[in-house]
Amino acid sequence: MANNICLIGPMGAGKSTIGKKLAERLNMEFVDCDDEIQARTGTTISVIFDIEGESGFRDREEKILADLLTRSNTVIATGGGCILRESSRIQLQQADSVIYLKTDVGEQLKRTSKSRHRPLLDTPDRESRLTEIAAEREPLYAEVATLTIQSQGRKSVAVVEEIIDKLAL
What we know:
The structure is a single chain. The chain is α/β, with parallel strands linked by helices. It has a single domain, classed as Rossmann fold (3-Layer(aba) Sandwich). The protein is built from 7 helices and 5 strands. It has helices spanning 15-26, 33-41, 45-68, 86-92, 105-112, 126-144, 156-166; strands at residues 5-8, 29-32, 74-77, 97-102, 147-150. A 5-stranded parallel beta sheet has the order 2-3-1-4-5, with helices on both faces. Helix 1 (15-26) crosses helix 7 (156-166), helix 2 crosses helix 3 (45-68) and helix 5 (105-112) packs across helix 6. 32% of the residues are buried.
């Protein structure tokens, strides 16, 4: 388990976009946990939520994360809720670097406005839902992060450069 970088943070923080660019710049592999779950199950996250509920999805997410953390030289973009389970938070702390990409609800609303594949946002009042989720998750992101980077209102390239600089890579 060497040289893994995990990106954590809320939906719309840029974990996948920044993760791909960071991996490319550092000549590392990139894996998105949500994409990996969909590839392995052959279905969408929304369908998993519909059939198994959030708990069933979190079971799958926990197993995938454990598997991905056995790799080396990998940038891993986690799902926004992967930090909800203590066991997943403990797993994340095995990574060399856990970077919390921080953004606010306004930015999340902008970045997720056209997205229809986010089961937790399947509600008429997305802003209230995002505010509620943030209140629950922000302390957990801060707990496991080795580095916090503001991604809000910034170009992904600038965020990548800051990560590389702060990690002295």
